Each structure stands twice: as C-alpha cells, then as structure tokens.
Here is the input.
Amino acid sequence: MDLEELQTKQAEEEHIIQMWEPLSFEAGPGYDYHRNGFLQRLATILLRIAADVILAVLDRVCFGLTIGGRKNKKRIRGRGAVTICNHMHVMDCTMIELAMWSRRMYYVTLESNFRIPLVRHLIRLLGGVPLPTKPKSLAAMMEEMGKALRKGSCVQIYPETVLHPYFDGLRRFEDGAFHLAVKNRVPILPLVVSQRPPKGIFNFYKRRPCLHLEILPPVEPDESLPPREARRKLKQQCHEAMAAFLEEDKQRQTSLWY
Here is the structure.
C-alpha cells in the first residue's frame, strides 16, 4: 500500500541526535495541522519575523551560512510546492526557513519532537507538523498537507528521513515527498546543504566546515505517467540533481582550496 511506503524508518534506524522527550503527544483524529485561526496566524507571522532576524545572524556567524539560487524560488511564485533537503545538520531547518522566509511553510517533523517541553510550542508556532506513526493518522496528515499545497503553501519534507550530521553525500530517498507532489500536481523544489572550507574570518574560530544552502530549479511531476511511475521518476530526477550539485560543489571547493 502507498501509505505504508510513506512510513519513515523510525523503527528501523535510530537518530543520532537523541532529544529529551518526557511529555506524551500523539496527533490523533481532528488534529489542527493548518493553524489558520487569526490569532494563530498572527502569532506565527510575528514569531517567524523575529526568528528570521535572529537566525540570519546566528546561522551566518556560527555556520558561515550562505544561500544561493534564490531565483529558482521565484519560479514557483503563486504555486504550492513540496520542498526537500538533505538532512545533515541539526539546524538545517533554520537554514531552510531563511531560504523560504517569504512563503507560508509547513515543516513535517518527527511526532516525538512534540514531546519536548517548551520546544514543542516553538515548533508548532513556526509551522511544524507532526509525522504520525499510525497509518490512519498518517493518511489524515497527508490529506491535510495536500490541502495546504493546493492553497499555495509549501510543505518541507526530509526525504532521507534520518539526520546524519555533516554527511557530505546524499542518501536514499523515501517516497513521501514525491507521493505528495504527484498526488497534488505540484512541483518539488530541491534544496541542498553543502560543506565548504572556512575562509577569511571563519578560519579563526571554526573547526567545522562552513555551510551553503542552494535552491535548485523546481522539478515538475510527469502527469503523462501513472502515479507510481511518476513518483519514481520524480524521486530519481530530484536525487540526481541534488547529488550532482553536491559533487560539483565539492570538486569546485576542493580546487579553490588547493
């Protein structure tokens, strides 16, 4: 079944970063994924503005973050889109937020993150959407995200599902993001976080590589194909485009370094 294929490998793989999760939480029937109430939307907008100002400084100073390919975001103007990104840093969601700040965003994240005190409220306000572990709840979440896409919002999904800090390649993709894009006839907007040697002032205090986020051109589903084949083709196209950028960027930075 398609929905079973959408399940992440939470039961098969352990996340390297383990969080303290003392609270109970489960996204059951009737859960409000959209938060479209006036006060809810106002709180989200104000918090995003404040967070983006802080993150613009924090991510630049701490991670040397640069962002490229902004012209590609303009190609989905007025349309909903599924954004995907390699999952290689615990803060890469903040980098996606800075790249996509002008769009209404929903971030699909682990249901367990909503069991963390205080943090769960920030996640919720900033557009976090719990990924249910039960098939019925998962189906409901996917349907609600489909509605958001059709209204012009963007839905962020990590197709690798599992965080591997500072992994410099691209791992296998799961189907969820591509199922959502094909079913709702919206493009995938790939984002790629790559690593670069510290230069200039960053040489004085950074031991880890600096990070760069690139927005790649959107990839449209092939509507002439049956859904399963369209999903497979879309996943392959996105994986190849992202892997090619990572490899080219790595070679370019190596040549500049040496």
The beta strands are 66-68, 81-85, 105-110, 128-131, 154-157, 188-196, 210-215. The mean pLDDT is 90. The chain has eight helices and seven strands. Residues 85 and 177 are 11 Å apart (CA to CA).
